[in-house]
Amino acid sequence: MMATPGNADTAGRNTARVFFALWPDPDMRTALAGMGKHMHAQCGGRRTRAESIHITLAFVGEVGIERIAELQALAAQLQCAAFNFELARTGWWRHNHIAWVAPETVPQGLIDLASALQSRLKGAGFKVDERAYLPHVTLLRKADCPWAQAAMKPLRWTARNFVLVKSVTGENGSAYEIIGRWPLVSAL
Ligand code: ATP
Ligand code: MG
User: Fold this and answer.
1) Mind listing the pLDDT tens digit for each residue in 132-166?
2) Ligand 1 atom at minimal distance to the Cα of residue 169
3) Where are the domains of the chain?
4) In angstroms, what is the span from residue 73 Cα to ligand 2's centroid?
């Protein structure tokens, strides 16, 4: 189908690859980038750029850009609670050569937020990933780690908001642009 001028973004595309995520604050970003450096020394591969470090909550994939407002409206309606958790485990997946850090046990707040997004997305007719939710922070790609999993000095993350992100595929991996941010209901 031809893109109409009113329906294209600045790059002339009429679809975008989008996902919901938790984005680290500057201190957490620095701590995670440091962890990435440490793991890189052992595993090699390509490090995630500090500004790209995140935890995916719900992957939406390619959508018409006219539907982005719908995603933003859906996010604005969520009433999920803010939560704390710890990243306490580092690991490496042999099948995709990704090295990551993750919570030891997935906090209820994270499960609730990801499920709420998932069910709203489904209700609004977006395609959703039916696989079990496995929250993690990808720190290395194309890595070869000598271990599958290990404990790490826990990093405490306070999730006070979540974001909608546009992913633009480039020559050196994907670049992300935050296109919406919504607060979590805070009792913290
Ligand atoms: P690249 O694919 O260029 O190596 P990337 O995986 O970070 O980089 P995207 O593929 O756009 O970029 O993915 C954005 C985020 O969504 C990443 O956290 C990725 O792990 C996650 N993701 C990608 N595809 C899926 C999927 N089918 N289901 C669930 N999460 C996904
Ligand atoms: Mg990808």
Assistant:
1) 999 999 999 999 999 899 999 999 999 999 999 99
2) 3
3) 15-183
4) 25
Superfamily designation of domain 15-183:
Cyclic phosphodiesterase (3.90.1140.10)
Contact call for residues 110 and 102 (beta carbons, < 8 A): no
Quick: pLDDT tens for 90-127.
999 999 999 999 999 999 999 999 999 999 999 999 99
Backbone angles phi, psi at 147, to 5 degrees: -135, 160
Fill in the amino acid letter for 1.
M
Cβ of 167 less than 6 Å from ligand 1: yes
C-alpha–C-alpha distance, residues 21 and 138, integer Å: 13
pTM: 0.93
Torsions phi, psi of 58, nearest 5?
-155, 125
- Rounded to whole angstroms, the Cα distance separating 157 from 86 reads 6
